[in-house]
Amino acid sequence: MRVSQLEGSRVALWGWGREGRAAWRALRAALPSLPLTLFCNEAEAAEAAALGDPLLATATRADGEALSAFDVVVKSPGISPYRPEAQAAAAGGTRFIGGTALWFAAHPDARTACVTGTKGKSTTTSLLAHLLRAGGHRTALAGNIGLPLLEVPETPAPEFWTIELSSYQTGDVASSGVRPEVAVVLNLFPEHLDWHGSEARYVEDKLKLVTEARPRTAVLNAADPRLAALDLPGSRVLWFNRADGWHLRGDALFRGDAFVLDTAAVPLPGRHNRGNLCAAMAAIEALGVDAAPLAPAALEFRPLPHRLQWLGERDGVAWVNDSISTTPHASLAALDCHRGRRVAILLGGHDRGLDWTDFASRMRGEAPVAVVTMGGNGPRIHALLAPLAAGGRFALEAADDLADAVARARRLLDGDGVVLLSPGAPSFGGYRDYTERGRHFAALGGFDPEAISAIPGLGVA
Predict the structure, then answer these.
(1) Are 176 and 105 in contact (CB under 8 A)?
(2) What's the pLDDT score for residue 270?
(3) Which residues partner with 246 through β-bridges?
(4) pLDDT for 266
(5) Which of 200, 259, 374, 452 counts the highest number of beta carbons within 10 A?
(6) What sign has the CA pseudo-torsion 367, 369, 375, 378?
(7) Cα–chain-centroid distance for residue 346?
(8) Selection from 200, 225, 215 nearest residue 170 by Cα
């Protein structure tokens, strides 16, 4: 559905975060006389009122009856369509769409490379844009990475659009009716179960980017069993992490049997992270660009903040900010990157009910020096790890909050080791988002939060 098709319809916005504000600007620019209703909280209603839009009304009660009064509700990504009030309104005929769907509908001919996956999607999307730009291609970097598609200036038009998509947005692409040129799926692990309702639905929603959006080329990770089992009629499939495609042998990057680059010096911490380069190279190839000559540009890539980010050292202790970590698998990957070091890992945050059993099993043989739990699911993680800690494998302490956790980690390391924030859980409740949590961690370690937070390369370049 294009924005112009909303004229004459009863339209509401649901959510007033950055995506919601971007949708309002796009709607108002295209349809200046369209009445709009915004469903939001009281603070957001006051902020919206300050805009001075006489055709924008606000409402703080978004129940099924209120939502059913509209033909179309433009929903922010963080609001689940599986909520009872959304389901009730949808059953009554209300259509729910997102800003991503509006953008794709308006750009049917854009050369898009969309990237999703449980982990690594921001790095892969950013790396993809970096490499294309190094090859002289004007490229947009946008989406879930921190710049809504509806905010990106369209003139002069980029040659390629590299777009990060969360599991909240993949269905928007499918519903837009526009086929992406390239769609990359990196991996699948349980996440966002509170939004999706179950692991099965999370996987189904995530895979809509390739199963329902029907990209011209799907770039898939052959090492992920669920991806390896996919059958995608109508899409060409390029595999990475397979011997006949882009893959790593140790630190060496290969295309089939051809050596391309030694990745040891690529500034991506952890072999699993450097594996994202394989996905980016395969996506470039899928776009019809000769990828191999661009590989050396990866050596100049600037890593993204809050993703295994090395902050520096203070009094013999190194500080690593992995605030983006929201699953136990991500926390294990972070520990793997620092194997051989004395590590105190900070775990816990918003409890989405994820299973930490595999994490606990790994602690039987590969435990850090210390684990400090915190946040809503901290007590649950602590109880699971307590029997192992009692055997003396590692120190285990419970903290009241992040500041307390940092203080405990400092004491446990006693001037030698790594304080690793890799919580394996979202930041909701204690912080607005993982960025705010990472910034607070940096400040607690004695580092400048402003200096560590910028995402390089957003927009068109």
Answers:
(1) yes
(2) 78
(3) 240, 255
(4) 94
(5) 374
(6) positive
(7) 20
(8) 215
Cα–Cα separations (whole angstroms), residue 35 to 11, 117, 311, 414: 7, 37, 48, 61
User: Tens digits of per-residue pLDDT, 54-69?
Assistant: 999 999 899 999 999 9
Q: CB neighbours (10 Å) of residue 179?
A: 17
- Please give the structure tokens belonging to residue 145: 């990475």
Q: How far apart are alpha carbons 2 and 25 in whole angstroms? A: 14
Q: Contact, 323 vs 306, CB < 8 A? A: yes
Q: Which of 136, 51, 233 is nearest to 461 (CA)?
A: 136
- Residues 9, 72 contacting (CB under 8 angstroms): yes
Instruction: Name the token pair of 434.
Output: 């993982």
Residues 6+ apart with CB under 8 A from 458: 141, 142, 145, 146, 147
Q: Which residues pair with 142 in a beta bridge?
A: 163
- Give the 3-state secondary structure of residue 311: strand
Residues of the chain with pLDDT under 50: none
What is the DSSP track for 85-117? HHHHHHHTT-EEE-HHHHHHHH-TT--EEEEE-
| Residue 33 Cα distances to 134, 168, 227, angstroms | 43, 30, 46
DSSP H or E stretch at residue 454: none
Residue 304: exposure state from Cβ atoms within 10 A (0-12, 13-18, ≥19) = buried
On average, the pLDDT of the chain sits at: 95
Backbone φ/ψ region at 164: left (φ over 0), alpha (ψ -120 to 50), beta: beta
Res 7: pLDDT: 96
Residue 85 is predicted with a pLDDT of 97
How big is the chain, counted in residues?
Answer: 461
Contacts of 240 (CB under 8 A, 6+ apart): 219, 220, 221, 222, 246, 247, 278, 279, 281, 282
Q: Is 61 exposed, middle or buried (0-12, 13-18, 19+ CB in 10 A)?
A: exposed
Tokens matching residue 60:
């703080």
Sequence letter at residue 354: L
Amino acid in the structure at residue 434: Y
Cα–Cα distance for residue pair 81/95, rounded to 1 Å: 10
Q: Report the pLDDT value the prediction gives residue 317, as an integer from 0 to 100.
A: 97
Q: How far is Cα 155 from Cα 70, in angstroms, rounded to an integer?
A: 33
Q: Whole-angstrom Cα distance, residue 97 to residue 78?
A: 12
CA 344 to the chain's CA centroid: 25
Residue type, 395: A
Radius of gyration of the chain (CA): 23
Is the Cα torsion angle 73, 76, 79, 80 positive or negative in sign?
Answer: positive
- 124, HSE (Cβ side, Cα atoms, 13 Å): 33
Phi first, then psi: what are they for 164, rounded to 5°? Answer: -85, 135
